[in-house]
């Protein structure tokens, strides 16, 4: 009997130890993920983004909270994060950060109708040409007066889109059900950004905004170098060729920047 009791006690102790080790490993992974995000924020804070306007250059605000943490098992990317820059609550630049073999890569896409300039250490790193074309959403009910109900309307509009990407092998990007960004309640605009993803990795973003007509408008932007198309209801409304060959050239709406040695 004592032997059986001893065996039972040992088994309980093993379970406790295993649970403690597992919890420690989980806590360690959470802390590392937080540290990884903190390093990405520091990298993006070092960028100064300016927008052209008739009144002169306007500072574009970096939003330090990650809009989305993602992974892409198909491309064997374990972790990535998305961040935005805004003016008056309207998104103007979006960036995705992820590991590549020698460090970290930043993938930046203009969401602006006007040129943007990216500056680092007082040196211009990139000039973004205007990238988005806003179009009215057909057959949509006017924006509701209540903010919560406007979100429902935004989601219904987003569900009408289908996005496809790829070269020889096509894939359909999946719509995330909730926007990755929405303008603050006190902003003068009410805009939302929806992501179409592979895994949870954004391949394209859809911006939807309530206007004063009253009407809704939308615009699409890529977050990948492969060809992309979008269909609204049954009509193709957006098509872009591959941009791999120009992804590091100036005067493009899309740019990748590599940070060798970054962790």
- Category by helix and strand content: alpha+beta
Task: Say how many strands there are.
Answer: 18
Number of domains: 2
Fraction of residues in β-strands: over 45%
Spans of 5+ residues with little confidence (pLDDT < 50)?
A: none
Number of helices: 2
The topology string of helices and strands comes to: HEEEEEEEEEHEEEEEEEEE
Termini separation: 56 Å
On the 0-100 scale, what is the average pLDDT?
91
Reported for the largest beta sheet, the result is:
9 strands, antiparallel
Helix content: 10-25%
Radius of gyration: 22 Å
- Assign an overall shape: globular
What are the main properties of this structure?
2 domains; 18 strands; 263 residues; five-stranded antiparallel β-sheet
Give a short overview.
This protein has 263 residues and is α+β, with helices and mostly antiparallel strands. Helices cover 21% and strands 46% of the residues.
Report on the structure:
Helix content is 21%, strand content 46%. By secondary structure, it is of the alpha+beta class. The protein has 2 domains: 38 residues; 215 residues, no CATH class. Strands 9, 10, 11, 12, 13, 14, 15, 16 and 17 form a 9-stranded antiparallel β-sheet that branches.
Walk me through the topology:
Blueprint lengths: L1 H44 L1 E5 L6 E2 L1 E12 L4 E11 L2 E11 L2 E8 L5 E5 L2 E6 L6 E2 L10 H12 L2 E5 L5 E5 L5 E2 L7 E9 L2 E11 L3 E8 L5 E5 L2 E6 L13 E7 L3
Antiparallel strand pairs: 1-2, 1-7, 3-4, 4-5, 5-6, 6-18, 7-8, 9-15, 10-11, 10-16, 11-13, 12-13, 13-14, 14-15, 16-17
């Amino acid at each position: 009997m004592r032997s059986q009791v001893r065996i039972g006690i040992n088994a309980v102790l093993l379970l406790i130890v295993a649970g403690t080790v597992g919890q420690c490993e989980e806590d360690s992974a959470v802390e590392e993920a937080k540290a990884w995000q903190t390093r990405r924020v520091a990298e993006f804070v070092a960028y100064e983004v300016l927008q052209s306007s008739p009144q002169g250059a306007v500072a574009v605000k970096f939003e330090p909270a990650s809009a989305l943490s993602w992974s892409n098992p198909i491309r064997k990317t374990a972790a990535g994060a998305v961040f935005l820059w805004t003016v008056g609550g309207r998104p103007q630049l979006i960036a995705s950060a992820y590991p590549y073999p020698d460090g970290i890569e930043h993938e930046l896409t203009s969401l602006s109708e006007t040129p943007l300039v990216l500056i680092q250490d007082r040196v211009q790193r990139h000039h973004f040409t205007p990238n988005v074309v806003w179009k009215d959403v057909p057959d949509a009910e006017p924006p509701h007066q209540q903010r919560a109900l406007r979100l429902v309307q935004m989601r219904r509009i987003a569900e009408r889109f289908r996005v496809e990407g790829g070269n020889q092998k096509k894939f359909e990007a999946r719509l995330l059900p909730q926007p990755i960004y929405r303008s603050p309640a006190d902003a003068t605009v009410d805009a939302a950004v929806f992501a179409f993803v592979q895994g949870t990795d954004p391949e394209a973003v859809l911006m939807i905004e309530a206007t004063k007509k009253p009407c809704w408008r939308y615009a699409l932007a890529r977050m990948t170098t492969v060809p992309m198309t979008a269909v609204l209801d049954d009509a193709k409304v957006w098509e872009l060729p591959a941009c791999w060959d120009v992804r590091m050239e100036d005067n493009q709406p899309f740019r990748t920047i590599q940070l060798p040695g970054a962790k």
